[in-house]
Structure prediction request, 352 residues.
Amino acid sequence: MLRFQHEINNWEVNQVASTVLVTGGTGFIGSHTTVALQKAGYRVVILDNLHNSHAYVVDNIAKITGVRPAFVQGDVRDPQVLASTFRQYTPDAVLHFAGMKAVGESTALPLVYYDNNVHGSVTMLQAMQAANVRTFVFSSSATVYGDPQQLPIPESHRREATNPYGHTKLVVEDVLANLWESEPGWRIARLRYFNPVGAHPSGLIGEAPQGIPNNLMPYVAQVAVGQRDKVRVFGNDYDTPDGTGVRDYIHVMDLAEGHVRALEYCRDCDSSELLTVNLGTGQGNSVLEMIRAFEQASSRPIPYEIVDRRPGDIAACWADTQLAEKTLGCRATRTIQDMCDDAWRWQTSRVE
Prediction:
């Protein structure tokens, strides 16, 4: 930790005259992307309602980068908050992470998901329209592919969401396509990413869901630290090598850096752009493989039990990453063990 603090003190920000609004910027992916943006020299304004995140994240981002992002506590569904934020900070682009993201929860609360994810996105786009800001990077998801007909999954794969969460992403993707077709000048990136895990190597920011985690890695981490008694594995009868679900797990910092590349791609375009690209590693790992990797990272056994499948889950899903590599020069470099090591460092060092 002392070595890392020394690196922080000697870190210099490149001077790039660009301000970026990051919605959901105190959340898991948004906070890591804020770190990557500041490292690349961008000035960042975070807008977050703290529904599933914490205000201390802003302080920890400042500790990591040496630069404190501006912070506005507010909701993307509030037009007055958005108008005020655009007037005060005059951002050049928006990276949109604000929304709800749990597959199982979305099947129980579909109206809540449509309100947050679709209504929130449309309200943001209207605010951008009014402020004459036309660069937008959207946090989409591999769930828009539904139950994949081929692996790895290319961007040309047909879309068919199997749950309300995935459908909200699909709807917003269509809204963005319609907007781009109807109004010249928009530069839009729709980033379909797979399963972000891990944490910043400093241990200062990571995934900190409120309540019971909906995603595998924070649940496993809480079991390893003794906060929960065992991991629930949703199904072991899938057509996969060990019967458990297989996913493309990508380190959150690889994902964050992919967002910076996408923003730069849009920023450097000579004209309108609608980019749709997968962000993943191009390979899959099962739930049990992830549990074993976390056992190695934590040097502790991770007890688990097999329970029924969740509605809307699929057997296997991993990305075709060729387009990301060709278009953005973007390739994931961190390993499964890196993901588990960093997540464990975050879990054991966090103080709330």
